[in-house]
From TrEMBL:
PANTHER family: CRP FAMILY TRANSCRIPTIONAL REGULATORY PROTEIN, HTH-TYPE TRANSCRIPTIONAL REGULATOR ARCR. It comes from Thiothrix fructosivorans. This is Crp/Fnr family transcriptional regulator. Residues 123-195 form the HTH crp-type domain. CDD domains: CAP_ED.
Amino acid sequence: MLQDARPVTVPRLERLFEAGNLPAGVFCLKAGSIRIGIVADSGHERTIDVVLPGGTFGEASIFKSSEAPVYAQALIQSDLLCISNETILTGIQQWPEMATVFLELACTRINQLLAGMYVCCLRNAHQRVNDFLLKNAQPVGGSRIQGIVSLLVSKSVVASSLNLTPETFSRELHSLSDQGLIKVERALIHVYDLEKLRRQGIA
């Protein structure tokens, strides 16, 4: 199938497709970053996911030809491969086990959406930011207490993915910084006490 894949380059901030369009197939990101988002009638936007190199999206269009409920936008110039739905369906007919792969991808998407609903409906702003830091913190050396979070996208995109305004996200980071729990340095967030963040997230 890869020999039939079509290379696509999307300039920074341009959209690969809009909500309401029919996706051309399944996309695999080689380089860059792609925001998957939705727009409300009010114009308010929400980031559903940020796809990083090696990630895929558009799998739902394989089995159901319908308008996409989301848009896909390049946060930086991005290089992708597009495999048409026809090519994939032909491959599934020849190798039925391929269907399992795409069903697993679909299940992963569903679980991500359910997790996002839980965060937005049942967690307050403080808990959402704590959850984000705990989920993305990488240990420093052999420490179980300290970690570091590398922001691969802008703070405004992170805020949108947490269903927060950029101002609220920044305010929560400042609060944690004032408590001595974190230190923000451009795209790096140093976390000094992961255990205390966990306790705050439960409270």
